[in-house]
Amino acid sequence: MARAYSLFEGSYSVDISKKFVPFDPNKDDPKDRPGSLFIHVHPFLIETKNGLIVIDTGLGQRNEQDELVIHANIKKLGFSIKDVRYVLMSHLHKDHANGMVDVQKDGSKHLAFPNAEYVIQQQEWENAYSAETSSYNTAVFDIVQRSGNIVFVHGDGQLTPEISYELSGGHCEFHQVFHLEIEGTHFFFGGDELPEPEEIFRNFIAKYDYDGRKAKELREEYWRRGKQGDWVFLFYHSKSIAIGRPEIKADGSYKIANVE
Questions:
Q1: pTM of the predicted protein model
Q2: Which CATH number goes with the domain that contains 8?
Q3: pLDDT tens-digit profile of 209-251?
Q4: Angle formed by the axes of helices 122-130 and 138-147, nearest 10°
Q5: Count of CB atoms within 10 A of residue 110's CB?
Q6: For residue 52, what are the domain limits?
Q7: In angstroms, what is the C-alpha Rg of the chain?
Q8: pLDDT in tens, 85-94
Q9: Cα separation of 234 and 194, whole Å?
């Protein structure tokens, strides 16, 4: 049976500078970082009988052994980096895309998943190069481009019989979401349009979205469809449940239940 795993990269605070500063809730005081958002970063790994799938790649953080944290986490689960077949990218903001490349301390740079195809919306790629914002790290993109491993997609479509994508355009103009229907389980990754389970029940228009109203409406749509289809939701920035599915409570309302 297909299974999803969080490749948790850490907890961070982010202010107007868009720098991701490590934040330990057990030691650090949020009051010392005024005007900051506090988020976790969860790339995901999905195990299938046809190979491994990575969904978004994190900040590219390294551990004390100078190894990508995302690599170390995959190995801890007993898997090989060489067996990653697809890397699905919701968008290319640096907290989602820096881990596409392995940038070592000696300055050498390599594709993080050399046997994988990187699935990217072409207009998001083009926009990332032209956008005047610190949200993108184009030095990483140059390495990916030279690799020849990019699969550019356009709009909505079907990548494989198991994997489909939808151009959503809420968080950024060419953001995409993914549906993976594998061995009887429907996994859904909403990227930064559904980054935390709390946003299902506390729906709002966010200032950090390209189209806040559209992102709000998309969250409502994803939840409605997900309840009907018993989806497994993957929450990239969750501080609570990273992998969850709808569950009816005793009073008839719904909650997100943790999926082990």
A1: 0.94
A2: 3.60.15.10
A3: 999 999 999 999 999 999 999 999 999 999 999 999 999 999 9
A4: 140
A5: 12
A6: 3-258
A7: 18
A8: 999 999 999 9
A9: 9
